[in-house]
Design goal:
80% of the residues lie in helices and 0% in strands. The chain is mainly α and 186 residues long.
Length: 186
């Protein structure tokens, strides 16, 4: 096996290429964060309106309709922007969020089975993913937003269910949508 010794400039060029690839991967994924943050926020606000008799549709419609839109758009966007190879960062982030989606799904099932609110668990899972993404990108805004989700999760424990819906929607907008809209570079 032939080993090539790189000079400092060549080493820095490789590192810069990896950093640029990571930034490119994030900018491709940004639309998914914005989409899902908005859809979960709108579903939360819609269910609040239903429970307060502002909307007169069954209570579970927002949780079927909005995630359904998200799933369709995510599949469409994912297939249209499919890359032949994934960077390590992109592979890790996709695996992490997939694992967290499973945790969210299990939390929702367990919460509904035990007739307790799922929002503290949802906020914890999203906060973990947001914080880890922030640490990977060395982006303090995302680390801070992950902490906001964690604080929101703790605060949810002290609120009635209807107010938890509002807090969940607000956390999604403040901690997920806004930083992805304003963060043009990592």
């Amino acid at each position: 096996m032939n080993e090539t010794i790189l000079n400092p400039n060549e080493s820095l060029a490789i590192i810069q290429k990896v950093v640029n690839s990571t930034r490119q991967d994030y900018h491709i994924q940004r639309k998914f964060y914005i989409l899902w943050g908005m859809l979960i926020a709108v579903a939360s606000f819609s269910q609040y309106a239903i429970l307060n008799h502002i909307l007169s549709i069954p209570w579970f419609y927002p949780w079927i309709f909005f995630p359904g839109i998200g799933l369709i758009l995510s599949i469409f966007w994912g297939l249209s922007s499919k890359k032949t190879s994934l960077s390590y960062y992109n592979h890790f982030v996709l695996t992490m969020w997939f694992t967290l989606y499973i945790a969210i799904g299990l939390s929702l099932f367990i919460s509904l089975f035990n007739q307790i609110s799922p929002f503290p668990y949802l906020l914890v899972c999203v906060g973990i993913g947001t914080s880890i993404s922030g640490f990977l990108m060395k982006n303090r805004l995302f680390i801070l937003c992950g902490l906001i989700f964690g604080i929101g999760a703790i605060y949810c424990l002290y609120l009635p269910f209807q107010q938890q819906l509002l807090l969940n929607g607000a956390c999604m907008i403040i901690g997920n949508v806004m930083p992805n809209l304003i963060s043009h570079h990592v």
